[in-house]
Amino acid sequence: MKRLPFCLSFALLLPCLCPPPAAFAAPADSAAVPAAKNPGVSAFGPRPALPPQEPSVGPRPVRREPGTAPVAQPPGPAATAAPGIAPKALLKLSFSQTLALQVGLDRLAFSPGCIDGKSGGQTTLAIQAWQISNGQAPTGSLTPEDLAKLGNPDDALALYTVTEEDDAAICSTPKSWKEKSEMTRLGYYSLIELVAEQFHCKEDLLRRLNPELDWKTAAAGTEVTVPDTLAGEVRPGKAARLQVNLQEKYIRAYDAKERLIAHFPCSIAKAQEKRPSGDGKVITAAKDPSYTYDPALFADEPESKLYNGKKMIIPPGPNNPVGTAWVSLNLPGYGMHGTPKPEDIGKTGSHGCFRLANWNAEKLLRMVDAGIPVKFEP
Q1: Does residue 10 fall inside a structural domain?
Q2: Does the residue 41 lie in any domain?
């Protein structure tokens, strides 16, 4: 099972709400994680228990063998979106079909946001991105053949066994900025939060898939049914440019041949005047950044008045205010970063930066180099 890596932290000072640049490692070329060689055998264990309200979710997936090296996965043909095409409503899909579709899109780096088994705007935009990547018109509607390519309910789920490492990654929940600054790492506040982030889904989906599980008492050795986002996972290569759509709230990455290779939902500045326009570029990036809390930036919060302007370094971790990855832009105070609240992506506004789910921010981090252009579209 691929784990979410814990890397070195960076103590970053903030001119505004987001951290400045730090060094980053270059990503490997695009690759996919193959499925298991023995069809029908899961590396996670036996067939997942199915939710009673949806008995057709399907059997266990075909999985890759642990440690199997990724193989090359070239992107689809170049294509450009036709201007003015708005997302169309998805076909009426069952819960299991929608869940499998979202899992398939996520594996290909066309993120539907937090996987929840429900058709919505972020799923439609992810479908459009996949269509563009495959030389199709971005209608947001799928043919039965395309649906079969993207989402097979028979391999959408897997059983995951909670590990001692998972237990160790859960920390106490701090109640104030001061308490956060006194911690060594802002880990996960609960097991369900950890599993949801590892498998790119909403906590409510995990509750639905595991109706008998008591998440408060679950510990190492517990088996959990999860969306299988790892089987056949595509790892995009280097991006040559990024496109930020402020109206639809997404970031897309294109390679040197102008092929769309990744799509990530994002949150943007709540205030219109704080939204950038025109062109920018990536300056640098960092994995597991620290965050500098400045009370002046939170003047509307009563707690900020307790610190008399004293700044505090907030340690790294998934519950750090900027999540587990940071990409700095040449616009002062602006960046693309993770978040401790992935379910809010695209629904709540930021102070100016571009928020992504941690797993998408980490993918983006691996794709970028300093100097690649960023285009902001209204």
Answers
A1: no
A2: no
Average pLDDT over residues 158-163: 98
Token pair for residue 131? 């269509």
Residues 251 and 57: their CA atoms lie apart, in Å, by 31
Here the tokens at position 376 are: 């902001």
Contact 237, 255 (CB under 8 A): yes
| Whole-prediction pTM | 0.79
Alpha-carbon distance of 294 to 275, in angstroms, equals 21
Q: Is residue 330 part of a domain?
A: yes
The C-alpha atoms of residue 293 and residue 181 are separated, in whole angstroms, by: 9
Q: Give the count of domains, the chain.
A: 1
341: containing domain: 237-377
**What percentage of the chain has pLDDT greater than the value 90?**
66
Cβ atoms of residues 319 and 55 within 8 Å: no
CATH of the domain at 244: 2.40.440.10
Q: What are the residues facing 345 on neighbouring strands? A: none
Per-residue pLDDT reduced to its tens digit, 256-270: 999 999 999 999 876
Q: Which residues pair with 292 in a beta bridge?
A: 313
- Alpha helices per DSSP H over 44-202: 95-107, 121-133, 144-150, 164-168, 177-181, 191-198
Comparing CA positions, the residue from 130, 125, 49, 31 lying closest to residue 85 is 125
Give me the DSSP letters along 250-287. Answer: EEEEE-TT--EEEEEE-B-BSSGGGS--EEEEEEEEEE
Amino acid identity of 167?
A: D
Show the tokens assigned to 164: 């001692």
Residue 301 lies in a domain: yes
Which are the contacts of 231, defined by CB distance < 8 A and separation ≥ 6?
33, 35, 61, 62, 63, 64, 107, 155, 158
Q: What is the pLDDT of residues 55-74, one digit of tens each?
A: 333 334 433 322 233 333 33
- Residue positions counted in the chain: 378
